[in-house]
Each structure stands twice: as C-alpha cells, then as structure tokens.
Amino acid sequence: MSAHPPFSFELQARSGRARAGLFHTPHGVIETPCFMPVGTQATVRAMTPEDLRRLGAQIVLGNTFHLYLRPGPALIRAAGGLHAFMAWDRPILTDSGGFQVFSLAHLRKVDEEGVVFRSPFDGGEHRFTPESVIEIEAALGADVIMPLDVCVGYPCETADARLALERTMRWLSRSVASRRRDDQALFGIVQGAFDVALRREAAARVAAFDLPGVAIGGLSVGEPHAVMYEILDAIADALPADRPRYLMGIGAPHNLAQAVGYGVDLFDCALPTRVARTGVVFTRDGRVNLRNRAFAEDMRPLDPDCACEVCRTFSRAYVRHLFKTDEMLGPRLATFHNLHFLIHWTQEMREAILGGRFNAWQRSVLARYATSW
Amino acid sequence: MSAHPPFSFELQARSGRARAGLFHTPHGVIETPCFMPVGTQATVRAMTPEDLRRLGAQIVLGNTFHLYLRPGPALIRAAGGLHAFMAWDRPILTDSGGFQVFSLAHLRKVDEEGVVFRSPFDGGEHRFTPESVIEIEAALGADVIMPLDVCVGYPCETADARLALERTMRWLSRSVASRRRDDQALFGIVQGAFDVALRREAAARVAAFDLPGVAIGGLSVGEPHAVMYEILDAIADALPADRPRYLMGIGAPHNLAQAVGYGVDLFDCALPTRVARTGVVFTRDGRVNLRNRAFAEDMRPLDPDCACEVCRTFSRAYVRHLFKTDEMLGPRLATFHNLHFLIHWTQEMREAILGGRFNAWQRSVLARYATSW
C-alpha cells in the first residue's frame, strides 16, 4: 500500500501480468482496469454527468491546457472546483497540458524554465512552468494530477529522447517540490520515446519518486503497436506493484486488451468519443461506420451483443438516419454507446482477472475483434 | 364528445374562454392546454425519448415533408411506424408538409392537383397531392395528421387569400375522402390569411366537416401579434367546443399565455429548441442570452424559478462556458430547459383554468415576462 493517504492502491488479483485492483481517492474508489472518458473542456462531449454514471464511468479527465485558457482556473475555483463546476462528484484526473502545448498551441519557446506558447483561440502569449501547472491544477482540484513533461514525436533520435527525458525528470522534481494539496495525487510520467533501455531507466527513476501512481506517456503518437507493446513489456517489472499504472492516450479496444496483459490499470483516450461524432461505433466484431449505406435498413442494435440503453432502444437504421440528417442526437447516442462499450470491456477484463482467466478472455476477444478496418 | 373513436376531447373546465381538457388518442391521453415539442426529422433535436418523458412532453411532432425526403416513408413503415422508429410510445402528430413545401422547397408549380417541388437536399423532383400526403402520413402512423393546405405569406391581398382558402377547402375534402386508417385523427386547418371575415367563414366551414380536431394555420408568419389575437378572438365562437383547437407554429411564452385566453388547446413551435441552440433560454422574466458576458461568473441556475434537472444541476457560468467552447452539451441542456419551461408554463395554465383563476395567472405572468428583448 502506498503511503499517500487518502490515496492507496489495493492489488486484488493477478492473472498472468494482468492486474485487478482498487484505487482509493478522495471522491471514491476506482475499480481497475478502468477506462476514463475524456472531458477536455469540463464536459465529456455530449454527455451529462448522469449519462456518465449510467454508462458506468468511475472517473473522468479534464484538460489543464484547455481549462486554463477557457474559462480559466479562477472561475473554476470560484465555482468550487472542477467537480462542482461540471457537476461530477466522482474522481477527476487532470493532465498537465504538456501534450496540448506541444501539439495544439503555437509553440514559441521551450527552455529549462518551461514553455512559452500562444493560445490557438486568440493568439495571446502564455507560459507554463512545472510550478504554474501544479498551481493551475490545484485551482481545478482534480483528485489525480499530472506534471508538466516534455513530449517528443515519432520517430525520435535517442540523443533527443535522452534530453527530453532528463528535462522531464528535472521538471518532475520541481512539480513534486511545488505541490501543496495533500488531497491531490501527483503521478510521475515515464518518458523515453521508443528506446527500450531509456524507457526501462525512466520507469526505475520515476518509481524512485515513490509517488501514488505512475503514468506512461509519449506512446501512440505514430509508432507501430508492436513498439508500444515491446516498451510495456520491458518496463512492467520496473514499476512498483503497489501503485496504479496509467497508459496515457490509449483507447482502441484491442490496444486495451493487450495493454492490460502487460499490467496496465488505467486508460484514457478521446478516440471513442471522437469517432462517435463521425458515426463510427464499436462492436464485438470491430468498428462499424453507420454512415455506410449497408446499414440503411438495418433494424439491429448498434452492437447486437451490447446491453446499453442505446442498443436496447434504437436501431442502426435510425441512428444512421440521425447522422445522415446531421441531427445532434446521432453523435450523442454513438458517444454513449462507445463509452459504455469500452467501460464494459474493461469490466470484463477485471472479472476475467479476478477469475484467473485473463489470457483466455484476451485470446477470445482478440480473435473476434477485427482491426483491419 | 366527438364521434371519432378512439379519439375524443373532454372539456373539463373553462376559465373565461380558456379551456382545460383531455384529448384521448390511441397512444394516450393529452392534458390540455399542451405544448408539443417539434421533432422534425423523427427526433426532437438533441433530446432522447427518455429526456422528453422526463421534461413532461405528452406528444411530439414529426414533419411529413422532411421524413418523406429522408429517410422516406417506406423505411419508417418497415421499422414499424414512426413511434417504433424513434422509440416514442406516446402520441405523435405529423403536419402535412405543406408549410415546408411553400417555405423550404424549390417550388416548381402549384395547381389544383397539388404541388410539384424540388428537394432542397438533392434537387430531385417530387409531387405532393392531398391524397399522397395522407398516404405518406398513413405510412408514418402518427395519431394526429394534418391535410395538405395552401399557405400564403404576410401581407396577403384578400382576393389571393380567398383563392388559397377555397383550394385549401377542396383539398380538405379530398384528404377526408382518401383517409383509410381509423386510428389516425385528421384535423381540418382554418386558413384565410389576415382577413377576419374570411377567417370566421373558414372556421365555420372547417367545423362543418365534423373532424376530431381543428387547426389554425397561416399565423405568426410576420404579421403583428395584435392581428393574430384579433383573428383568434373572432373565430373562437365559430369553432366546435368539443374538439381540440391547435394553433400551429406558435411557441413564445407570452403568445401561449394570450392564445390560451382565446380558447386554444394545443401548440407547437420550433422556437424553444431553435433559440436554445444559440444559447437563448426562457426565464420567468423573459429570454436570456447566455453568451452575454454578464453571465460569465453567474453561478445561478438558467432560471432561478425553474425546478428542471438542468436548473437543479448547472450554473449559467457553466452552460455559458459550454456555448463559448462550442460544446454539444450546451445546446442539449438549453433545449431541455426551454422545453421544460414551456411545458411547465402550459401545465400552470391548466391548473389555473381548473382552479377558475386563469385571468389572474395571465395578468401576473405577462406583467413579469419581458418581451422587449
């Protein structure tokens, strides 16, 4: 058990390297493995908090970069924090905004102190430092917070990966030193690009910080899946067994099924909500694009094996009609289903792990789930 | 009681000329006065059927013109009708599509037989006749159906209004003759543009058809509100007391409060859902535009006097943030509130009528509700 009350991670069972656990936070206990819906702008797109409860969400993400720019941390603090502002009383995780600064913002300059960037909304200049990000996250008040890190792309030279890793580690030290709220769990982030040795070293160095959880960042940025699995395989034993492991930005069903097999506990990704808005829904057989003419008269549910409210109520033909006529209800229903699907998927993995039969579950679902689409 | 089983209208109480009643249909009883949300394309924009039940909707509209073009009546019939297709098990009303043909379609030609028009979606040529519209509506399967009528604009010469009225009456005869389904109530539509004498004549002629309900069409198309009230005042006594009266296309709270005073029972309008999508919400004091900077830090509900789920859960500051960041949840929450507001508004009128105090209610709410915005 980690010595960071009110946070702790109970490892309940292993099946191979897959883990089932309970992550205790000030706003409730999270059963792992767990998929966390992304609520970038203090809203999981198209969903109410009640929808999220009904589809089984245990924790949602907020994005520090977006919320810092709009509506700003002062307003959210005045509203009583992010939980009160968005009316979500279960756990929240905020990322550091680092990934967005490097991918969305007009980057001005990164130096040892931090990053200067321009807002993509109004061009205004802003600076993030490890300390200012911790301060913003304190105003937002999430249960789990991420430190500012240096993100690199794919491919990446080992020398560049080393420089980014070293700065990420120094920024982590500054983040730890600037923390003030004991009711927020700061995770360390394992970087190191696509170099297995560097990743293993990073995992050991992050573990040495003895933080309440460890994140694995900088993956799924264009590298082959095999590279990601190789890294997960290599670092699993270097990570503390009694802390939750969060693989950042991964959300495809087959990737989740593989990553849990390497001992990952927590996931987030905008994929299920983003593709839902284009009419793409998950099924046990793979993704389906409802805009396809093949579904025009298809009176079956989105996924015939799904028991969610949307699948119990509406047909593919109806939801396709909503997308073809640009009705908002289409993205809303597809979002609900996709989030339910992924969360149910992680619940199934949890039950399989608790029952000691994770490998059989994994083989069976991966044999059926088509990834060729 | 009207001799059109399974349809009947029980007049329960009057307060002045305002009426409270029960309209029996195959899918349930509608308490009047009643506001009917508009679900043009087999969906009340952004709402699920469950939302509609929770906000108190008793009946929703579908639009024959839109549903004829997309997805087409054959698909909806194959799905088991509009109720099954959109998963709404309470009453539905379909309009005739006449108004849309005259306002949205690229009109090719109107003659005694019907209208030829081009689809605004793909330019394809289509013909509506009174008979074909009844046939489409039979495929859709709504409880209440409207006949094809001839719509005119404002202003309108009396001679033109007379021609349109005469054709509308001949088309009503053909609609009545082509009806096949006894489980659908065909209403007659009172036209006559803005000429009080013509309107009174039309009301008497429609009443003579002895149909299960009467609609009042062609109003709120640009004329001053005083003209609409003068017409409602003039025709009230010419309409059968034992049939529901439906004022088409009226949805502003103050207009509803006035029209009920002239004996109107049913209303529909896209206004509450359309303005909701732009950030405008109804309050007891009038409309509020949430995009206004004045609400940036306003932690009060959308309407401090409203008890709907949205007002119980979220602040103006939060919903404004959703609109400023183009989040779908903004239109969704504003739509829910506006529909709840109008439906609660008609429920209050009903209670006031049953209590014999409608005039006092009307004076009180109209004194407070600001229409200047």
Write the layout of secondary structure elements.
2 copies of one chain form a homodimer.
Chain A: E1 8-15, E2 18-25, E3 28-32, E4 34-36, H1 49-54, E5 60-63, H2 64-69, H3 73-78, H4 82-86, E6 92-95, H5 98-103, E7 106-110, E8 115-118, E9 125-128, H6 130-140, E10 144-145, H7 158-178, E11 185-186, E12 188-190, H8 196-207, E13 214-216, H9 225-235, E14 245-247, H10 253-261, E15 266-268, H11 271-276, E16 280-283, E17 286-289, H12 309-313, H13 316-324, H14 329-354, H15 358-368
Parallel strand pairs in A: 4-15, 5-6, 6-10, 10-11, 12-13, 13-14, 14-15
Antiparallel strand pairs in A: 1-2, 2-3, 7-8, 8-9, 16-17
Helix pairs in contact in A: 6-7, 7-8, 8-9, 10-14, 10-15, 13-14, 14-15
What's this model, at a glance?
Chain A is α/β, with parallel strands linked by helices.
